[in-house]
Amino acid sequence: MKEHKKLYKQGKLWVTATLFALAFGITVGAGQAEAATDSATVAPVVQQVSQPVVKIGRGTSQQPSVVTSSQQNANQVPRSNGDQAYVNPNDHGNYAWLDQTNLNSDGTLTVSGWHATNASQGRQYHYIIAFDPTRNTEIARQDITDRAVSRPDVARVHPVAGAAQSGFTASFDLSQRLVTLDRVQIISRYTDDPAGNGNAADYWFTPIVIDRANRANFDSVGAVGDQLVVAGWHASNTAAGRAHHYVIFFDRTTNSEIGRVEVETPIARPDVAKAVPGVYHADQSGFTAKIALNKVNLNHQLQVISRYSGSADGNSDYLDYWFNPITSGNQVNQGWLDGVNLSDGQHLNFAGWHASNLAPFENHHFGILYDLTANSQLAVVKTSQGNRQDIARLLPNIPGAGQAGFSGQIDLAGLNLQPGHRYTIVSRYSTSSEGNGGGGQYSDYWSPAFTLDQHAFCLDGLKMGSDGLHANGWVVSDQSLTKRHPYLILLNNGKEIGRSALNLTSRPDVGKVYGQVYNSANSGFSTLIKLDPAQANGNLQLILRFSDDVYGNGNYDDQYSQTYASNAGNFDAIQVNPTGIYVAGWHASNQAVGKPYQYLIFIDQDGHELYRQEVLDKNCARPDVAKAEPAIYNSGNSGYQLGFNIPGQLNHHMVRIIHRFTDDAAGNGNAVDEWSSLVSINAMRTPIDYRQPSEYFAYPNLSQLNNFWIHVRIGQNRVYLMNNNDVVYTMYCTAGYYQNGVSTTPLGTYYIQAERGNSFYNGSLGEGANYWTSFLNHGEYLFHTVPTDRWGNYKPGEAAQLGINQGSHGCIRLSIPDAYWIMHNVPTGTRVVIDN
Predict the structure, then answer these.
(1) 681-737 pLDDT, tens per residue?
(2) b/e per residue, 306-324, with b = 16+ CB within 10 A?
(3) What would the mean pLDDT of 175-193 be, rounded to a whole number?
(4) Are strands 208-210 and 54-56 parallel, antiparallel or unpaired?
(5) Which of 83, 228, 458, 739 has its CA 20 to 30 Å from the CA of residue 142?
(6) Which residue among 354, 455, 485, 811 is the active-site one?
(7) Kindly report the CA angle at 227 between 222 and 231, in degrees rounded to 5?
């Protein structure tokens, strides 16, 4: 031992010298990465040469390397093919390399490498020594003299004694030292002492660093049945020798231990050993531990501790790993009810999502139907969980948010849901699988309330036939929960005239849109309300009713349709041309049943009939009317048209046109009428031509009139030839322009005077006219033609205003034939009335 200490002391001094040299940039050793020195020292000195640090842990294997000696020595030594043939006695190098170091999970350190030097001559024993450089103590040694490993590769490079057999492999059990061991240094020693001391030639390899990290990981945390279960692994070299492994459950909120479980059978974890090589028992570092959920408060901050201890109770000589808290103590609880569906009338289906950071522990999920109005639970079902990656993106910090979806179905039989009540779906995560989960720890999300008070309907089709009103569509109401008898009722001016019980049929399209309304997927109907269409003669309206009475009376929920006409029509076209009139339109009436004749009748403003004619082009297709007036009999074939030459008795009249259905061939008898607005029957010439008469019809024969007079309407630019109150002819005119709101043509009643003539010219005004007739001041205010210039030519610009604008200096301008007719036919003394 004294010799050993001497050797160690000398080696230590050598290391000190090496560090000093390195500090001042002096190269120690020979070659680029050569584990050797070029000194010829062969004395029994422990020699340490700089080599890359070896760490036991990740990447423990080193690349095997044999470094070439100096080219000078290589040239001096003759070589043979294969193994070394000669030894260069002048090579004083000390060469070595650790090819591989491996600390197994059982604590065994295995090293392999080679050591070659001429100093090995005369030192026939070869030892490999494991040394603790931190505590300056030898750990163990192995005599490998008889276990030399052939290394011809080394012999080919280094011409020194024994190079061809310089390889070695050695193993050391470090399991009892790993708790405190941080480095191991390997010494290769050639010595002449069988015990491995005495005269020696040493090579000190760079210390191997022992992994001192404390590593662990949770693989899973959650609830299984009524227990909280954690699983993971914990591995560290500092756990070596501590035979007892505990998993401790700790409540940080109350700062108290809840319970502990000893891991009696470690779980094999070859994956951990592969990930963290060189760590004691990493391949047996797995664990699983359980604790009853009723012993923990999930609303507290809970933490798990993995402990390796040297004592049986786990309370002393221990190494702990504190995992991150598995519950935060601050509960996150969010959710949403995507929808409730009662459309099939037999089930209440619901779906939504509920995310809670306690969901991994409260792993039983329930859907609870709660009546908020009655303040009572009605039903509970276990739900199906669903993937919701949208929620995972929305709430990335909540465990299990990606599986936050839920859906369930509640059988409505026996539930006695009540119309008008407010309900909610409660989503509940619970530690208990019994009942509604209320016996365990639970987290609830109360969805927004929904009220069973909705109803809706649509009349897809109506058609009045000779046998009554045909109707189809759909009707839904939450009231049908208790009012199970549907009816369709027809009102006429607010009084019922017929009803029909409905047999509801499948309407999945309605169920899709109105899923939250009870039985909406079975809401279709097609029915006939039997009646004589003649009964429906007023304003019609339909009631869609759900009643608790089999006959449709008693308690009921009504929905009212729009009001429908029973008689309607329109005059689409009333066209009056110079010689004829064309009338087209439609008329539909429930009263038209049994009335095959149609007439157009023309009535004047006093209600006197002027003309009638039977409509023969009738019952024309009008699908637009059928759509707009579905409750009227034959509305889809209600079109008609009639054209004829204007008879004299209609001309110059303001009339109303009656379209009539009647059972009388002459147009009288039982009738249903549709009236137009006022229409002017007037055959006036268009476009206006000052060279032509204003009408296509002939001027009236005054001898056949009993009260002829002239009515001038300045604002209308018209002169009306009257017989009593009837217009017998209309002329275009231009009267006096307005100045400060007053026309230059005097208003009032005047009489045709005797003065009249063929032409005149007013030099001061620079214009004249033809065929003039005086009606005031004996030649001052006249009826005459459009103006002429001094040469008697008609002025086109003034003529263009005829019948359109005012513009004279006070006279009444007319077309040439109209002025000529007045001058030659209107007798003196005829009354003239002029107004605006």
Answers:
(1) 877 888 999 999 999 888 999 999 999 999 999 999 999 999 998 888 999 999 999
(2) bbbbeeeebeeebbebebe
(3) 95
(4) parallel
(5) 83
(6) 811
(7) 45
Tokens of 389: 């990656």
Sorted by sequence, the CB contacts under 8 Å of residue 367 that are 6+ apart come out as 350, 380, 381, 382, 383, 406, 408, 410, 425, 426, 427, 428
CA distance 339 to 405: 12
pLDDT in tens, 25-76: 322 232 223 333 333 233 233 333 334 444 444 333 333 333 333 333 333 3
Q: What is the pLDDT of residue 85?
A: 55
> What pLDDT, on the 0 to 100 scale, is given for residue 329?
87
The alpha carbon torsion through 825, 828, 830, 835 (nearest 10 deg) reads 100
Give, as one character, the DSSP assignment of residue 480: G
Q: d(Cα 263, Cα 249) in Å, to the nearest integer?
A: 13
Higher pLDDT, 19 or 706: 706
Measuring CA to CA, how many Å separate 381 from each of 232, 377, 447?
34, 12, 16
Peptide bond preceding 486 in cis form (omega within 30 of 0)? no
Active site residue 811: yes
pLDDT given for residue 727 in this prediction: 86
Q: What is the 3-state secondary structure (H, E, C) of 179-235?
A: CCCCEEEEEEEEECCCCCCCCEEEEECCCEEECCCCEEEEEEEEEECCEEEEEEEEE
| CB neighbourhood size of 257 (10 A) | 11
Nearest partner of 533 among 634, 657, 405, judged by Cα: 634
Whether 401 contacts 423, CB under 8 Å: no
Q: Look at residue 399 and tell me whether its pLDDT is greater than 60.
A: yes
One-letter amino acid at 468 equals G
Tokens 């429930």, residue located: 590
First-residue to last-residue Cα distance in the chain: 147
pTM of the model: 0.64
* 3-class state of residue 295 by DSSP: helix
